[in-house]
């Protein structure tokens, strides 16, 4: 028994030792030394900046500092270099927190993992990337988590719709890609999506296609219903007129046949008229359903058991467009250790969320109280103006002059 425990401990130590943190950033003092702001869009005057701040609500102002976008309606791009790595045969975890304290109406909040070979001083939307992951919000229609993989030069968006958080608090976004070509997306350490890379992205041609040589058999019956062969049209059915004279109509008393012509009752719909006769419908005993060509193996399909693999990962960065700025990004982590990522998530986002929420709620209460006070003040001013107006409308009462003079 003791030997088994020792063996388990030994293998646990080996697993721990083999786990690697490729990049970790909590945006403490000196963070600027690791990050390179892009010159992209600067010449056009539409480049934004990242400011070091914890924002308007937080748990610990120093510990919760991240980088915040600003000003409004700008492009934002910043990157940092990692120790180059390949994720071959390993789990890959990409994790960060995002807080849209401006109540983001249209803009991105995603992170990118990029290969080497690009000029990161000019990092832009055209810079090649391996993975793009994170929330994207625009109006009512777009509130989703982007998970985009580059495969053979093409950026592939997940076919699943993964809803992102849209409030004004910090949320933890985690992407896990495994060497068995499966994945998971977590928000606040809770799984929101998972599955197979080949099934949920269009990496490959379909494994099977409809046989282009197949054709529908001549005797294939696609009619679910048919005319009842035993149903016979009733005698006299076609003799029933669609319109008849109104039996309740009467000739007007002032009607003159010589002057007005022969009077005729108006025509009305015949309640006995049933339209054109057709036999009733019954289930077709020969119905085989809608014909579809049979599936065959696609000759263009080429299996790939390494869809997950990116041999060259060197940079991490944020490249965004936002109409309303103010998003704060923090706690960036790239690792092959799923347990470590969960632990970091709890130590960062988990430690801040309650205090941040309490400060947010207090700010909201104060805001509502101020708005209520302003409304009350405005109402008082309105009433005062009304009273003053009513006073001005009243005509002054003139004193009557004494009609009599003192004759004494």
Descriptive account of the structure:
- This protein is α+β, with helices and mostly antiparallel strands.
- Helix content is 20%, strand content 31%.
- The protein has helices spanning 2-18, 197-200, 257-260, 338-347, 349-393; strands at 21-25, 35-37, 49-53, 66-70, 74-85, 92-100, 106-108, 111-114, 131-138, 142-151, 154-157, 170-177, 182-187, 190-196, 208-210, 225-227, 243-245, 267-269, 281-283, 295-297, 313-322, 327-335.
- Strands 1, 3, 4, 6, 12, 13, 14 and 22 form an eight-stranded antiparallel β-sheet that branches.
- A hairpin with a 3-residue loop joins strand 9 and strand 10 (142-151).
- Helix 4 (338-347) runs parallel beside helix 5 (349-393).
What number is the mean pLDDT? 91
The count of DSSP E runs of length 2 or more, i.e. the number of strands, is 22
Uncertain stretches: 1-17
Strand-residue proportion: 25-35%
Give the structural class. alpha+beta
Query: What's the end-to-end separation, in Å?
Result: 137 Å
From the spread of the alpha carbons, the general shape counts as flat
Radius of gyration: 39 Å
Instruction: Note the quaternary state here.
Output: single chain
Determine the number of helices (DSSP H or I, runs of at least 4 residues). 5
The amount of helix comes to 10-25%
Order of SSEs: HEEEEEEEEEEEEEEHEEEHEEEEEHH
Q: Largest beta sheet, briefly?
A: 8 strands, antiparallel
